[in-house]
Amino acid sequence: MKWLGRSYSRAVFGAVGGFLAWLLVEPFTTDVASFEELFRPVTAEGPAQPLAWIGGGALLGFALFALEDFLWGMTHFGIRKAVIGVFSGALGMSFAFFIGGQVFSALGDLVLAQAGLYRYATLVLVRGATWSLAGVLLGAALGLARGSVRGAAASGLGGLIGGATAGLLFDTLAPTLGVALTMGLTEPGWGSRLIGLVLLGALIGLFSAISETVLATARLKVISSGRLEGREFVADKPIITIGRSELCDIALYYDPTLPDRAARLQWQQGAYWIIPESNVPLTVNNRPVRQQPLRDEDVITVGETKLIYRTRSGPRGRREGATRLCQECGSENRPSAHFCRNCGAPLADDR
Description:
five-stranded mixed beta sheet, Tumour Suppressor Smad4, 2 domains, elongated, six-stranded antiparallel beta sheet
């Protein structure tokens, strides 16, 4: 369950975003007293409430996308992701709000003609479906912000699951918790909305990160002392850049010994290869390399930073019989080999 680490942190930031969204939305929202008000609104809403919900979505997107980067000190990268997050959150909440309203109105006569249980089930399902729109847009944008189409598909799937789950819980669990939160002293609507929006942010964050991590080919975790120690990065696109610049996929901005771009992970021959840029010194398991395919639990040292590389398949991905690595091209060779099977270079005596 090691992949849960980054999922927990994203869930926390999503919950913070949900709380910020509630602070903005609540002053413009009134409690709904009956099913008739939901499915057959009597009066048209003014622009304030829809705009508040769109703004709430923008705050949710900001927290999910950029808050963690700002806390890590990655200001420039955080600003770029904040712009994407604010736009994606506002767009997702717009879809959820307006499409949800249209669906509720379209089903009004049909739903109100049915018994109470049917009405309630329809409400729960429609809410889950419309909130999933916000989830899938936010989730997909999380992957696109990293420039990864595969990551967008994975986190979009997770966002859809998170948004739908939050929508289902909003009309089932949140009202009960809302009554407990208000202790029966005030109308429970504000408590339900608070819990519902916090759940929306937390579950979109949680499931998008889980899906992104589980479906990624590999991930890297910073294990050396430093400001980013413990932070994980997923590898799910053809080239992953490493360097001091915040424009790198793995931005080790605190390491003064690194150039702006120090190395890259490149997908080739069915594996990620680590390739240093120019004359940047780089070791894998304390052995200098020019380029080398990475295996599960390999430790990469670049500058003063160590990262551990973990694959989705785990240790079973290792080829136990090929224990000699060519220092020229990084290919694996038999223990008894004297020359590299790939490039023909002589193999070093140490193993």
